Here is the input.
Amino acid sequence: MTVYKDELRHQGLRAQLVKQLREKGITDEKVLEAIQTIPRHYFFDNAFEKIAYEDRAFPIAAGQTISQPYTVAYQTQLLQVKRNEKVLEIGTGSGYQTAILAALGARVCTIERQKELFDTIQKSYPFQRQYPGIRFFYGDGFLGLPTFAPFDKILITAAAPYTPPILLEQLKPGGVMVLPRDEGDSQRMIRITKQADGTLREECFDQFSFVPMLAGKNSGGNKIV
Ligand code: SAH
Here is the structure.
């Protein structure tokens, strides 16, 4: 069970986490401030609240994981989010990364392919009142969200086997997409910038390990619809 209460000791644990992220090389003050702002323990059962502030990934429902804080900070830093930008996130998972983007002032659309995760988050998301600009979708991230496109920024939080072409189309000129790309055990973090004339510039960063980005929606059993 999770009781949503943010106490001084939680804030202290977050300050320690922020210190660790700084030591690991995160420099963007706005990103660190967002990590200090969002109670990550709201995404954990109360019994695990200490673990919430360790810099590690953790299992959530449907065989998925909440990304490691360092990974969230790293991806968010590369995305260079500005206030009021329209951001598409692929892989809502726990919704923690979603809240970090919202704390930076983004209007976030986020897609999840696991019905179980989507239903839970739809029902009770602890930040919906604080950040009414967040919209949740159940669907296949490979297809993006044509009705809400184009986006200033796109963030993929699962291992993409290749750069989804439809998502590139849904990126504004001048827009940025960050994705962990490659099949297998680890992925390289890639940042793609769509120049004003539509050409693409690609930069490579460190290696990470993500759960796979899978095509289609999962309705709860093993059925793909
Ligand atoms: N941002 C999340 C990361 C969760 S792990 C967090 O910090 O909690 C990645 C998530 O991507 C999983 O929930 C997985 O179900 C989802 N996913 C994988 N392939 C997808 C796809 N094609 N479309 C949407 N979501 C997808």
Observations:
- The longest strand covers residues 171-181.
- Residues 64-67, 72, 90-91, 93-94, 96-97, 111-114, 117, 140-142, 157-158, 211, 213-215 surround S-adenosyl-L-homocysteine (CB under 6 Å).
- Helices lie at 8-23, 29-37, 69-79, 96-103, 115-123, 165-169.
- The chain is about 25% helix and 25% strand.
